[in-house]
Amino acid sequence: MMGEAEVGTSTMSIPVTGLLRGIVEQPHQREAFREMLASWPQADRDADELEALTHDDVDVELVVAPVPFTRPALEIPEFVDESGRVIEYGSRWAGGSPPEDAYSRVSHPERFAPMLPAVDALVDYLVTWYDVEVDRSVDESDARVLQLRPTIGAPITLTMTAESVAIEAGALFREIAPTCTCDACDETAETVAVQVEETVLAIAAGGFREVFPIGERRWLHTRIHISDGTGRASGGEPDPSLPAQRLDDAADLLARLPDGWWPAWSLRSASA
Predict the structure, then answer these.
(1) Residue 244 predicted with pLDDT over 70
(2) Helix (H) or strand (E) holding 233
(3) How many angstroms separate the CA atoms of 148 and 157, rounded?
(4) Among 42, 108, 189, 228, which is 20 to 30 Å from 243 by CA?
(5) Which residues pair with 84 in a beta bridge?
């Protein structure tokens, strides 16, 4: 039971009233309804397979540089609200719940810009310790694009603006930092820098997994395994804008990886 009665399975459901109204008022859609309902058991099976991947034990040897990355100090300017009071981003709600309107409000998206020098420092660190080349360019929207091309392992593309860093890696992985810019989430330049570091360093070290396709719905599972033993996993439909050929090529590529784990980037030799 939700706000109103729903019927469904463990992964899919629909309000009963709306379902019955649609069947009665739109008889020409009944076959489409039946086809939709018939797909739900497969959705459960696909979800179970995805869940099993999420809880797989991680047994991967990471290749980390002998010197850890040190983030440079971020120069954080002060931002003020309409009353002229300084906004303490990152601790605005003091552990409590944000006001409802904060979820639809984005104030000072430029507050994330101080993380850009930290991302540049991270790329310099990777070039110093790993065998990787970097192509730098600017796209049509004036965003900076850094393409990291390792001799072995998953390539990474970083698209950087004053408000976010988009990360593309491997075959199908896509992530954006900050994940959400709304005032309720209260993200900061520092939390964005940490997210980018964790993701990129894990990929370089060999803590990156992509499994595709999963089940008949052809879902994607990705996992980021961090050197401290923690990590995160996600799954679902790949980017719907990707063409079918790109998805087929990704499936062929990932099938050649051991359980979907990308190899670590090669460390540069001591004499390099």
Answers:
(1) yes
(2) strand 231-236
(3) 6
(4) 42
(5) none
